[in-house]
User: Fold these one by one.
Assistant:
Number 1:
Amino acid sequence: MTAPDVRAATCTVDGRPITLPQTGTESLWDVLEDHGVALPLGCASGHCGSCTVLLDGVPVPSCLVPHAEARGRSVATVATAADDALVAAMAEHGAVQCGFCSPGIVVTLSWLLRTTAAVGQPITADDVRNALTGHLCRCTGYTAVVQAAVSAASKISAASKAADR
Amino acid sequence: MTRHVFPATWEQAGHAALDGDAVVVGGATSVQPWLTSTGAQPSVLVHLRDVAGARSVDGMAGRLRIGAMVPVADPALRPVFGGTEPVWFATPAVRRRATVVGNAVSPFGPREVVPVLAACGARLVVLAEGGTRSIDVTAVPPNGLEPGAVACAAELAVPERIAFRRVALRPRLSRTEIGVAAALGDGCGAAISVGVGGPTLVVEGAAEFLRDPAGSPGFAAACCSAAPDPVRQLVGGLAVRVHRALHEPGGRS
């Protein structure tokens, strides 16, 4: 993959190079939408978390990012940032209802699993709740989401330990 | 149309910030919502992300120098926040992007970290047309620094102990209505904040009461004398809790 060029105002989105505007005040979310990347937008002020993406591997609400801040960086949406074990666990636990908040939640919790459970660190329900701060869900009450993440974490940890043996 | 510039040095950043109604961008967590909600079209956004040294935290002789791009969640800043990430500040995702220096000078939102910084005796290093100067962190006007000025860093004492108690709608995800912060250590003291987006006021003469384990009443009185009338009782109550937290960290506070 070719490295994006800051001065040429490009970034990659889910591994695909895209051109960013040279001027203007649109957010990264606006530009993603212009490129056909559909993400839910709730508050447009960084409170609800529904538009969260990974920017250079770190979760951030895309509504908070000026498009120019993405120059030379990689953006991953739920399409590529989702952890399969988490998605399966969320389905199993009924952790999705209307689904509006789910893309952002999946991006953040997948990042949490990759940076903790996958490297052998335990994840508690409190860790998950802390990670969910800034993700508003009006349907689930979060309980099933937390259960799903803890369940996925234990499966990932077990698989990681088995692979180490 | 708004242009974007990415200076590599502070000199370039200062030069770019002189351009019309330029807006300086650190973590952008308050700039972008302002742009989105108001439709503002400043002539240029000056992005600090590539400025050499802007992401560094340097410690020396009990003091810290925090670069303008250092985020609130940076582990190197934990001593300033009592050994943990400041969970009272926004959300984890915002804390990973919002910068300490940007929050302290932002004209777009409440300066949530300022009481804590002020308790550590923080000063801001500001680059402006006339050269570089140092200003008290509480001295930034409500509408931000003057046009063309760029805050490069914050310099503050590393506290031996620090406590911050506040009144807010909720423990998290709610802005500070009333806050009292105090720290023990050379160059440290106390500060109160009154009102969301309101001023942070340094509490004069607090240091002697803070060192004294029995100095709670004196500290509360000093805080009350700095507070406006309607909130004096609240500030006094918070001050007692802060003093207790400094001296009985395992106790209820």
Number 2:
Amino acid sequence: MSEMTVHTQGQLRNGLLDAYTATRRFLIRGTRQLDVVLGSVLIPVIFVVLFGYVFGSSIRIPGGNYRSYLMPGLFAMSILFSSNNVAVAVATDMSEGVVDRFRTLPIARSAIVIGRSLSSFVLGIPVLAVMILCGLAVGWRPEDGLGNAILALLLFELFGFAIGWLGVLVGLVAGGAQAADVIISIPTFLLGFISSVFVDPALMPAWLRVIAYWNPVSAVVTAGRQLFGNTIGPAPAGVWSLDHPIATTLGLALIIIVVVAPICVRLYSHSER
Amino acid sequence: MSAPAISASHLARSFGTTHALVDVSLDVEAGTVCALLGRNGAGKTTTVRILTTLLRANAGHARVAGFDVTEQAPQVRTRIGVTGQTATMDELLTGAENLETIGRFCHLGAANSRRRAAALLEQFDLTAAARQLVKNYSGGMRRRLDLAASLIHDPEVLFLDEPTTGLDPVSRAEMWTSIRTLVAGGTTVLLTTQYLDEADRLADTIVVVDRGLVVAEGTPEQLKASIGRAFIRVTLPEADPATLEKVRRLLGEEAEVSGRSVSAPAPHGLTTLEEVVGQLREQGVTVHEVGLEHPSLDEVFSTVTDHSGHPNVPATSTAGKA
């Protein structure tokens, strides 16, 4: 009995160690692909210009500046778009010999996908930092104290971690890097635009409105606006999900992680066997 | 004799309607090198992938280092090293970082992984390139790094899937030297190759596979002997017709003249040679050279993998000593 406990403890210890080693490997890779990191920063920055100024100049928000309303939305967009990189990276790994090498090593089966997801989470932090600087430059401010601002950022990071798993999933099922890039773009675009990122969902047709109200992107953006104190713009929608955006974000993120992560581990360890 | 390091029996594997492996059995004794020889698509890589826990067999079973490859995959993985056909090193990491990562995955610990990585880079002549990204490595350097990576945890059994395919002759010779050094250290090796000379030079035993079946196996010498009989060839100083005719008659009915030499089957090998030399001396024939010639492995290979419908040689060679 005690022998078995020792065995399980050893397995857990090795598993954690493997996940750490994998994360470390992907982080080293990440720092050597600055062009990819730059790309994932550049698109949201372009969005700041496009939506903040090009479209934003024509959008009137009751009680304040559209850019203050927009910025929490663009934080979520930048996180959404970094899941493209995860999907492409996982698909690339799967199509190369690296995965075979890993599979013949005595590694915990979950280590590689966990490492991939954790490293994308860590690499997402500087991207979010750039977005915050960008926001500050165009006049956005957190207006509800440092504590709530930090809480908001943590919520965005949790959302990013959940979305990263979707990226891993797409990377595992796509046939190659290019396919992964195309496939992941569909949910990221749909989730990004059918949401409260740019406009008030209340004005959308009914069927789109339902999607927008229960979209995790809307939840995290609404939570962000609340915690940053950017409470300008449309009145509360009167839907439970957006009246309790923090709970909704936590709930949806956890559901995504709990459902998608085990699928990814299974897909990874059973592929080609 | 102890249990074989690799033991596979009746492995089969299909991919859809393609029968990659039909029936492959093989045993490799500990401390020996076995070459799995065959053309592209013969089933070599599928066999290796099953033995290295990467692929499940549809039928049959296999044990590596004493453990079942399906039921005890984790135990097998801690005891094997694998170098695949495709480069498995991360291009964005340096050579040293790649090896250290593999070492950590083998639970050697950070410090130990660094030490092993440095030692292996030294052993494979890669110390100068240790801090370079692998994407700047040449093909030969990548293969050597791959080989080094599969040795980081001192595996009992090493699998090399076409270790020299696509390498230039110099890199190929370097790989051969590296492999021979390993074998001298007692590692059991199963290598796949399409090159006969590679199998001939490196392997103690050869298993020839074709279309998912084992078509011949044995030592290189046994295989050669199972195919063709040895030939005796007598070469004269010059092409003098009278002498040539004398030698031809002496060598028997099947003798053939070509240029200034006469050749004939030598069913009893060295004994035949001794007899012929004695008779030549008795008859006072001056010769330039007399020797025995064995069929090359090339001939063996084309005979056993002959797709023209001729019966193949028996699957197991019965020929005795070389």
